[in-house]
Each structure stands twice: as C-alpha cells, then as structure tokens.
Write a structure and sequence with these properties.
The structure is a single chain. By secondary structure, this protein is an all-beta fold. Among the domains are: 37 residues, no CATH class; 253 residues, Neuraminidase (6 Propeller). Helices cover 3% and strands 27% of the residues. It contains two helices and 22 strands. The strands form six sheets. A four-stranded antiparallel β-sheet has the order 4-22-21-20, with no helix packed on it. Strands 5-6-7-8 form a four-stranded antiparallel β-sheet, with no helix packed on it. A hairpin with a 6-residue loop joins β21 and β22. It is globular, with a radius of gyration of 20 Å.
Amino acid sequence: MSCLTRTLGVVGAIAVIGGWSACGRMGFELYTNDSDRISEHSELDSITGMENDSSWDSVSDSPVGGDSVSDTAETDSDDTQDTLMPTESESGTTDSSVDTESDSATDTATDTDTAPDSDTDMPASCYDGVKDSFEFFTDCGGLYCPPCPACTVPFDPPEEIVMQGVTGDVFAPFLSWNNQTLYFEATDTDNEDIYSVERSGRGIDFGVAAPAKELNSVYSDGTPCCSSDKTQMVFYSTRPGSMGGRDLWLASRDNSSVAFAEIVPLTEINSTAIDHMPSLSVDMLTLYYTSFRSDGVGMSDIWMARRANPKSPFAAPQNPSELNTVNREESPWVAADGLVMYFISDRTGGMGGADIWWATRPDSQSPFSAPVNLSDLNSAADEVDVSLSADEQEIYFSSNRNGPYTLWRAWRTCAQ
C-alpha cells in the first residue's frame, strides 16, 4: 500500500531522512496513523544498508558503453526509426484492460495522413508547412517528425479528476501518446494495481477505469509508463524475480492491437534497493527513473540509463547529480526534445511536503539548470507522480490537497 509517515525516529525497518519515513510505494504520501499499511509490505524490510551494487546481472553480453550523464537520446538512429515508423494498422479494439488500444478519433497522433515511405527518411509532410493529424504542431512532434521545441507556457489552475471505477488512493498517471488512454495505479486492494481508462478525445471526460489484468499480479504493481509506439510498458512490481522489493519490469508486445505477451525484470538496471517511477524517452532509448540505491546523492534520486536500440538492454545507470539533493527527488518526466525535465522533490524552497519542480538545459550535452518550483500547481499538501501529455499541453499528478490522493490535471496552450 502507499504511505509516507512523518516521524522523529526509525520505526522497525523504515528509513528516515529529514523527518520523513518511507513505506509502501515510496512516494510522498502523508499518513500519520497507518500502521497497517506500514506492516503489510515486506518490500521495505531492509531499506537501510541493503544496497549492493558490486555486480550487475545484465541481460546482454555486450551492454552499451557509458554515455554522458547529461546525454539525452537522439532520434536519428536507424534502429529507432525501424520501431517508430508505422508498418501496420493499429486500429485494434478497445476493452477494459490494456490488451489493445485504438488509434482512431484522436487529435494528435493518428496514422491517417501520409506516413513515411522508408525507414530512414522523415515523411514529406513533416516539411510541408501544414499541421497534419499525426503532428503535434506544424511540421513537428508525433512519432514521425522532429520533436517540437519544449513548451514553457504557464499552466492554468489544476482541476481534480473524478475517476470512476476506483475507490482507493490513486497515483502515477501517465497519458498515452494518442492522448486517449490514461494509465495509473490505485490502492483498491491490499496491493497496488495498474489501471487504464479511455476517453474519445481531448476535452472529453474519461470513462470507467478497469484493472490492467495482463500487467497485474497478486503482488504490488504500479507507476506505469507506456512507450511512444505503445509496444513496451515499464512499471514497478514486487512479484517474484524482483531484486529489491520494488523493481522495474518491462512488458512487450508486437503492436498495440495485441496483449502484452512478455514481462521480464530489467535486471541490468534493478538493484537491491527500491527502483520504480520510470519514464521512457520519445525514441525509447533513455529510461529515467527513481532509485533508493546507496550510491546516490540523497535518500531517493533520479537516475537514467541508455540503450542502443529499443530492443537492447540498458547500460549501467547514471546519476544526473545536478538534479538531485540530500532530500528526495522522484518521478522524472522529460520533454520530447530532452531539454526540460519535470520531477517531484521535497527540497527546501517548496510549498508543501512534496512539490512539482522543473529544470531546463540549452542542449542535450549540457547539465540541467537549477530547478524551479512550479508554484502555480503546488499546494501546502503533497503533489506527487508528475507526467505530461506528449505534446506538453496537459500535466497530470496526484495530490492529497483535498484529503485522499486523487488525480489532478492542468491545461495550457502551446502555440507553435
């Protein structure tokens, strides 16, 4: 279950930093009298002193070599284009699980216009001065055109999303690339589970949420992140095969019209500490995530790992230390151009226990600038698990400002 309790000492095996003690999902949720939630999970039995990174169980004999920490994956490799270019229809039927996902009736990323005619060339429509249906803005964005410049327009005031089909606390929202399917985690049962819910278009209410049965287990599963081509889902799980209680797992499928058929742990990334809250770059080559591993800067840090192509194992994780502090940094989300990062932190200078922050950089080879607090979205309560729509016009997060943890959303118009 999910909890984060203020305390002045160590209770059992709970790790304490700066007056915060973590349990359950290792987010920033605040419960003051929740001993049941603290005791019902074994994933935190030994947070302190349990990290051992002397060896990595890589799934490949030839892992990718070390890249610069500030290096963000580019979109010009032939292997990446093989994955991102459309090769077949993805019009599969939609049901209450995540088995299939319809790409019709969207306002951003559809395949109804001219698609690329080779594996290496951008389609001519990416340079025609017209906003085609699969582009986010004129001649940029989507899966086929160059990334649009990051949007820095302020957000409107956030609004709460009333989610039908769940009764417990709700966390970790992630909107699919067609702006149609929202994935999240909820605590309706003794464990956390992944859910999905559909809407027919932007500005239309979401329907009734249902568990993602093909991804969930009898253990805890959460913090889902779907790849841009919808063939991969990265999430955390405590199921057998995990190394540190919460580990990152990868679910794969051939296309979005079929169910996820293979679910494996990312052993080249996971540690004996907590690893969760993943975010995959547009080209699927860089994975950002949160880890409690001992060789970080603070209790929990943002980490990143790169791979040569979307089917390769990831290289050894690296710590973008300019983003991390002795406090907690979690839930990273990076814009398509790799130049803006949003994340959660309880560092000094915030408005509540945990806030949304963002940082920018001039190019993918440079470190990020000093993070700035998004005060227009934050409150005196906790804001956790931030993510944005692919075109950056919607921001989603979870907050307990009204009591239980519910999903919130804010809008903006990113004119190009």
